[in-house]
Amino acid sequence: MENSTKVKGRGAQKNVHNRFLEDAHEVRSDFLEYCRKEGEIADTNKTTYINVFPKTIINKVTSPDVGMEYSLNPYQGCEHGCIYCYARNSHEYWGYSAGLDFERNILVKQNAATLLEEKIKKKSWKTQTIVLSGNTDCYQPVEKELEITRNLLKVFLKYKHPVAIITKNALILRDLDLLKELAKDNLIGVNISITSLSEETRRVLEPRTTTIKKRLETVKTLAENGIPVNVMLAPIIPSINSHEILPLAKKVSELGATSIAFTIVRLNGAIGEIFTDWIRKTMPDKADKVLHQIESCHGGTLNDSRYGHRMRGEGKIAEQIRNLMQLARHKYFKNKKMPRLNMELHEQHKNGQYSLF
Prior knowledge:
- Residues 64-310 form the Radical SAM core domain.
- One of its GO terms (molecular function) is iron-sulfur cluster binding.
- Pfam families: Radical_SAM.
- It is a single chain.
- The chain is an alpha/beta fold.
- 33% of the residues lie in helices and 13% in strands.
- It has twelve helices and ten strands.
- Helix 3 (112-120) packs parallel to helix 5 (148-158), helix 5 (148-158) packs parallel to helix 6 (176-184) and helix 9 (245-254) runs parallel beside helix 12 (316-332).
């Protein structure tokens, strides 16, 4: 999109070219001018939900540095619109752009719970924690209506199977009843993503996410109900939220978080172009500074794809961030640790009820 008008309520401000497609789509200024003169709307900015029916739902994670072995994503694309999201690139595999398409064309896997149940009932399935939202948030806005994630949790509970959740939406508290039942057998761990204590920062980075206040309340409520919570201070973006590490860690520790983790922002694939366009429109006075500092964490580029380095970064700024995280853990999370989930119950419940034999 070549005009300078900000797309309201969205993170990305344009669609970038899909590297897998030969043709490119361009919104030209003369077309926009024509729409203006004719009183027509060039872009309705509406979200579209598209039902898809995959044959499998559980993904084997082969990357050695992401801390999970299996993931499950009931939605592809995410209306939250986080500008930095690494998952944007995956939308290209479905024929869409990693930019606005990622936020406005949401693929819905209505048969997710059925596929999960079929998979974990198989004799060949060996119990491992399955992470909901390894790619896109399982509690994005449409989940309130569709309840696909809630149905998945019912399957995990029925078969006593360990599950972890990554989200930044307070909608998870709707399912507190199921989470409490899973927690009784140590079958659940929750990761809440909180990038800032500033609502202003949250609005520009993550336009359609739960407010910071509600996210903090979510950490507190989960902890009070015996559900272990890891807070993801991720990603840390130099000169945007890097100064908030210690106050964030202190706050979530006081609310009952069990641990914290972090990543340094990396703008892989199409995200480099999307983020650069966004920051020049949103924070023009500090755009060059932020981009140069991100580059300094990745050997002079906006992205480093090397396993073990890509999310931790290198250089002085990355080292400062790691030192702050180490200090935060020492001050606020000493002797705290996320429990290992229970892998022993599922084999006895593969038919949906306890078996003695």
